[in-house]
Amino acid sequence: MVALVKLKRITRNYDGISALRGVSLEIKDGEILSIIGPNGSGKTTLLKILALLDRPSSGEIFYRGVRLGDSTSPQQRKKITMVFQRPALFNATVFANVAYGLALRGHSAGDISHRVERALKIVRLKGFASRMAGKLSGGEQQRVVLARAIALEPELLLLDEPTSNLDPANSAIFEKTIRSLGGKTTVVVATHNLFQAKRISDRVGCLLNGVMIDVGKTKDIFTRPRSKTTRKFISGEFF
């Protein structure tokens, strides 16, 4: 697979505290990559930098081989969508929520209708278009947010702990949806759920204390990690 995104020696400091320290990472086109690590390890910061919502303190970002700067970032930003841990929805119908980003980008009414219908079907919310989003369950709301992201057809989809507040049934639907996107959309999932990372990922990166200590194929990371620290984290010895 070709690298969609390449990070070189990325650091991010907040008031003297290092959230990321020299992170280098290649994200392959069409893969599902999980970033595992405990809370506070820098996973959300990494995703925000990948989403071009935050700037690194130092380091370089390349998108399809092009180094991103002030003039190129806005163009690439349209190709990237991020879903946060807690669903953020408007007090409107499911259709209006999923269609919002498409309308902002000037899509035709016919194209919007087609994309919304397709996205709702993918997340198993077919027939929900006319319902009020605020009256749905928490799991259904998170799936609406995912549908909104899918409708935009991003090249890179970033998911920050997307199932941490979901029941097992909604988590299973979410995971199946993510797997169905593999090969067509590049997906990066930040999670502390090791079982989830095993189930959905092509590759896994282990981020601890702002340092990417290991990256590899899912099976390799969980059965023969190169780093002793990764092995201790996976076995529960790290804490």
Q: What do you see in this structure?
A:
The protein is 36% helix and 27% strand. It is built from 9 helices and 10 strands. It has helices at 43-50, 73-77, 94-104, 109-122, 138-151, 168-181, 194-200, 218-223, 228-235, and strands spanning 3-14, 17-28, 32-36, 58-63, 66-67, 80-83, 156-160, 186-191, 203-208, 211-217. The chain has 239 residues and is α/β, with parallel strands linked by helices. It is globular, with a radius of gyration of 18 Å. The mean pLDDT is 92. The strands form 2 sheets. The chain has a 6-stranded mixed β-sheet, with helices on both faces. A hairpin with a 2-residue loop joins β9 and β10 (211-217). The protein folds into 2 domains: 1-79 and 154-239, P-loop containing nucleotide triphosphate hydrolases (Rossmann fold, 3-Layer(aba) Sandwich); 88-153, no CATH class.
